Amino acid sequence: MTFYDNHDMPRMDADDNGFIDANNWLFTSRGIPVVYYGSEIGFRAGADQHAGNRDFFGQDNIQIAKSHPVRASLARIAAIRKNSIALQRGLQVNLDFGNDTAAFYRVYQKDGVNQTALVLLNKGDDTAEFEISDWVFYGQWRLAGGEETLTIDATSAPTRASVPAHGVTIYLSGDAITGADLKTKLQRRQARAVR
């Protein structure tokens, strides 16, 4: 399980965007995400283990949560994860990590079920431009949570995409991995996971 705070440590000290960024990472990277109660509204942000991080949430905060931007973003990314076997159980292959950006694949291939998620994260205050040229494989990709499709072939690689500030863009492919380099990398990851 992965988490950024809980009852035995200080609550994360961040603004709304910080919680949105953390949840986008938590629900797309490897592991099982755990969100401590109240983090959906930044409740008692920064409070120490014995100085407020276990305070009673209360009905007023339940009402606030219904329209809070952190909760709305969390609900969106949780729904995407719920509908993606790759985000739930796929191996992670890191592509590029910058100061405010991250790009990686989550790849699930088992018993004839194939799904790859291309995850593009931006925790910056401005739109980020991504160019993915490592382990690009061809096929039809669908925007998670949307209708947009993307076809990647020999003429369209490398893959370019824009991700808004404090946003995440995820493309999903149901095609089997065909690139030899990516297959080799996945086999090494799988061998380590089995040990």
Question: Can you describe this structure?
Answer:
With 195 residues, the protein is an alpha+beta fold. The chain folds into two domains: 16-82, no CATH class; 86-194, Golgi alpha-mannosidase II (Immunoglobulin-like), CATH 2.60.40. 27% of the residues lie in helices and 27% in strands. It has helices at residues 16-26, 58-65, 69-82, 85-89, 180-194; strands at residues 91-97, 101-110, 113-122, 128-132, 139-143, 149-152, 159-163, 167-173. The strands form two sheets. It has a six-stranded antiparallel sheet. A hairpin with a 2-residue loop joins strand 2 (101-110) and strand 3 (113-122). The chain is elongated, with a radius of gyration of 18 Å.
Short account of what is shown:
With 195 residues, this protein is of the alpha+beta class. It has helices at 16-26, 58-65, 69-82, 85-89, 180-194; strands spanning 91-97, 101-110, 113-122, 128-132, 139-143, 149-152, 159-163, 167-173.
Shape: elongated
**Major sheet summary line:** 6 strands, antiparallel
Residue runs with pLDDT of under 50 for 5 or more positions: none
**Mean pLDDT, nearest integer?**
91
**What is the strand arrangement across the widest sheet?**
1-2-3-8-5-6
CATH H-level superfamily of the largest domain: Golgi alpha-mannosidase II
CATH class designation of the largest domain: Mainly Beta
Number of helices: 5
The structure class reads alpha+beta
What is Rg? 18 Å
